[in-house]
Write a structure and sequence with these properties.
By secondary structure, this protein is mostly helical. Helices cover 76% and strands 0% of the residues. The protein contains 7 helices and no strands. The radius of gyration is 19 Å and the shape is elongated.
Length: 129
Amino acid sequence: QAQSGYQELLKQSLAEQKLHLQMLSQTLAASHLSREEQRNLHMSMENHRHALTDSVEAKKDPALVKWLQNLGLNTSSIDRIIGEDLTLSDVLDLMSRDDLKRLGLKAGPELRIWRAILQHRNIPLTPTP
């Protein structure tokens, strides 16, 4: 189940990268267009950006956002986690320390999340050597 979740995340990431490449290609092509054509292209790119933002907003797990806020995470860290399309259940029940490290968070937020995960799983908080 976790593997299929990762595959879905990879597919989503690839789709987003493809869109970014298309937008970059359009931007490059726009350097040779008239001002009006550039304006139209800019509007199109903005619409795509808003569509991506809206899709991320629609996929947010409100329980996960609230939990992260209660841990004192800043908006940047919360956005990074939400951008991975995770749910609170994914984080609390399935996430490993390596999964958490791969998110690329600062040390403080990473440690607070890991401590909360361990507490949820009733695992002692003493570090191992």
